[in-house]
Amino acid sequence: MRPSILDPLFAPATGLPGVGPKIAPLVDRLVAEPGQPARIVDLLFHLPTGGVSRKVAGKIADAPVGEPVSLVVTVSHHQPGPLNRSKAPFRVVADDDSGDIAIVFFNMPRARIERLLPIGARKVVSGKIEVYDGRRQMVHPDRVVDLDEIDTLPAVETIYGQTEGLTSRMFARLVGAALERVPDLPEWQDPAFLARERFLSFREALGALHRPDSVETVAGEAGLAHPARRRLAYDEALASQLALALVRARQRRKPGRSNVGDGRLVAAITERLPYALTGAQARALDDIRADMASDTRMLRLLQGDVGAGKTVVGLLAMASAIEAGRQAAMMAPTEILARQHYARLQPLADEAGLTIALLTGRDRGAERRAALAGFADGSIQIAVGTHALFQEEVAFHDLGLAVVDEQHRFGVHQRLALGAKGQAVDVLVMTATPIPRTLALTYFGDMDVSILDEKPPGRQPIQTKLVAQGRIGEVVKGLGRAMEAGARIYWVCPLVEESETIDLAAAEDRAEDLARWFGDKVGLIHGRMPGREKDEAMRRFQAGETTLLVSTTVIEVGVDVPEATIMVIEHAERFGLAQLHQLRGRIGRGSEASTCLLLYKGPLGETARARLEIMRETEDGFRIAEEDLKLRGEGEVLGTRQSGLPGFKLLRPETDGRLLETARDDARLVVERDPKLEGPRGEALRVLLYLFSRDAAVRTLGAG
Ligand code: ADP
Ligand code: MG
Fold it and tell me: Beta partners for 50?
């Protein structure tokens, strides 16, 4: 139940004076959550994006030109335009003791002007000063008020960005009324923290932002740094982190099991690897084994850029679970990847004396029945597969660890579903999407994180070049030379439209074109191919029977052919940054130098150009992700807009990263000290969770 103290804030906006049948839909469109009518709180969380100063400052002669100012003036005389020129402006000349100024009106009835600025009146006029014909003038002042009404002039007039047909002034009036309804809420923030950050109360902060006393409070960098905005952003950060911490605490309350292995299998596999683990891999493995050994459930995210070597860490984690006498499963987002994992793991498993089986949607018949039986009776120790591993008919004898590869293709529900396939299953999620730290906190704040921040040694940097589509002929010639020298090449065709058939046609056409030059060295793979054909296309490329593989974006995630050193991406301008980075990650995996050619069709828009430039500049996935965040905003980086995860209203992950981190620590402490949110601060924090629509987390409190 929502605390009743919040009722005035959750009341519909139509309860405000001035929000009638005409205005209400505009307000809804501007601030409401999808499918709901706007509430008062929605108006209040729509913060101004700037302001115009209305402070009376100085004299006419000193007033800055080109900036909005307010001046106290006396009207001296009227200068109507010549009678025969109806388009001519009406000028009102006014002065103070420093000089005079013309206040200019076009197309305004004379009677109205005379009422507004009668001769002899003292008035405050507010607007922008221009110089015309050597004279100062103000065209159509924004505001004209009597001297005794000067207090009604806000010090700063707020601007509300897009207002969907509402003027900023109308919106400001509505918000003004909404501010009157804000109750005094119990303080949910730690008092020492508030004092240190010089934060106002929630209510005062809203007031300070919607009725700012200076433009700097709401505009630009200064606005972002203003304690009032930061206070509200922190409130939202704390609500989100507390919600995650509560969910996490609940998951941990379900008892885990301690899985301690003797290290025998891990050592056997490590010895057989053709390389030594990097420091980062070893550290991640230590984290994982410590988690598994503890008697709480593991929920760990293994984050590492493309090519960082996550798979082997996953394998060793599985070996560790098996040492402890349990089973392990590794799940991949696509059939190709599941098969690739299986192909790589199977020989290692064999040598270590482990039993392993593959299960995908495609497997049927006897093989499938054997795998299912083996999982169920425990005779198969490692399961590798796709979503098929979730299906109800799949049962495990004693699943100890679930490894989920390439997390961003799986939803949260799915990762929990696999965890439900056994008693106290430890979960390791591996993601190749370099999620900016701040976002990782937001969406995976319920998990512990290990980061592979070190690539395997001996990798050479990938050279990335931008090439205009018109030079495709030269590119093909260059590829010919490279192929003669033994190179293996990916040629990626873009998503042309939302239609797979059309994409497919583009890829098929391109493969045909290239086959004219390179004959049967050209392979083709795309999403619509039957699975077995895909496998075959992949196998031939892997084996070097084909050396130029034309593909749609099916190769985006995870494919590992270390011999491939060249990638051509057609219409690179149509891809997002994250996707380009993923694609490019398919090369540069061996010790040979690699080249990525980004073919683009001009003219490039500003953002498209920025994306391609970033790709040329850096290979650092985290940097790319941060830039992506700046270019696109938070919701789209993780595709959350579609998935319906709550986004932020006030917080900006790209600037408020530190607030999020502080909030996470704060939330964890709260949950440790007051896991049921029953103390005085706990009660106040419940209010906070409702305020920011994180109330689903409150329900976990009752659920135990
Ligand atoms: P990703 O993190 O993108 O999933 P993979 O696990 O596919 O990366 O590994 C990329 C490549 O690096 C593979 O060919 C793998 O065999 C190799 N690799 C992994 N760890 C090391 C290491 N420590 N030293 C050298 N090569 C490694
Ligand atoms: Mg991988």
Answer: 159
pLDDT digits (tens, 9 = 90+) for 377-418: 999 999 999 888 877 789 999 999 999 887 555 555 555 566
Ligand 1 centroid – CA 267 distance (Å): 18
Q: Tell which of 225, 250, 277 closes a domain.
A: 225
DSSP per residue, 232-283:
HHHHHHHHHHHHHHHHHHHHHHS--------SHHHHHHHHHSSSPPPHHHHH
Amino acid at 263: G
Length of the chain: 704
Whether residue 443 is found in the same domain as residue 498: no
Residues 95 and 207 in one domain: no
575 and 589 fall within a common domain = yes
122 forms beta bridges with 74
To test the pocket of ligand 1, the residue of 269, 270, 272, 275 to mutate (highest count of ligand atoms within 8 Å of its CB) is 275
Give CA separation, 55 vs 59, 127, 383, 613, in Å. 12, 11, 71, 44
**Is 253 inside a domain boundary?**
no
- Please give the residue range of the domain that contains residue 124: 55-153
* Residue 579 pLDDT grade (very low, low, confident, very high; cuts 50, 70, 90): confident
CATH number assigned to the domain comprising residue 582? 3.40.50.300
pLDDT band at 643; cut points 50, 70, 90: very low
pLDDT value, residue 416? 59
Cα of 459 from ligand 1 centre, angstroms: 11
Per-residue model confidence (pLDDT) at position 559: 75
Q: How far apart, in whole angstroms, are the C-alpha atoms of residue 621 and residue 627?
A: 10
pTM (2 decimals)?
0.64
The lowest-confidence range among 142-151, 457-466, 469-478, 632-641 is 632-641
Query: Distance between alpha carbon 582 and the CA centroid of its chain, in Å?
Result: 16
CA-closest candidate to residue 382, choices 442, 312, 292, 322: 322
Each residue's pLDDT tens digit, 502-543: 556 678 889 999 999 999 999 999 877 888 888 899 889 999
Does 628 sit in the ligand 1 pocket, CB within 6 Å?
no
CB 279 within 8 A of CB 454: yes
Whether residue 398 lies inside any domain: the answer is: yes
Alpha helices in 519-576 (DSSP H): 531-543
Ligand with the closest atom to the CA of 408: 2
Distance 589 CA to ligand 1 centre (A): 7
Distance 557 CA to ligand 2 centre (A): 7
Distances (CA, A) of 622 to 148, 168, 182, 314, 648: 58, 38, 41, 21, 21
pLDDT at 399: 93
| C-beta 39 within 6 A of ligand 1 | no
What mean pLDDT is predicted for residues 424-433?
83
pLDDT at residue 243 is higher than 90: no
For residues 332 and 3, give the distance between their C-alpha atoms in angstroms, rounded to a whole number: 43
Judge whether 690 lies within some domain.
Answer: no
Retrieve residue 667's tokens: 């939330």
pLDDT of res. 638: 45
Contacts of 603 by beta carbon, 8 Å cutoff, 6+ apart: none
For residue range 2-12, what is the model confidence (pLDDT) as tens digits? 899 999 999 99
Residue 605: inside a domain, yes or no? yes
**C-beta 590 within 6 A of ligand 1:** no
The count of domains in the chain is 4
CA 252-255-261 angle, to 5 degrees, is: 100
456 lines ligand 1 (CB under 6 A): yes
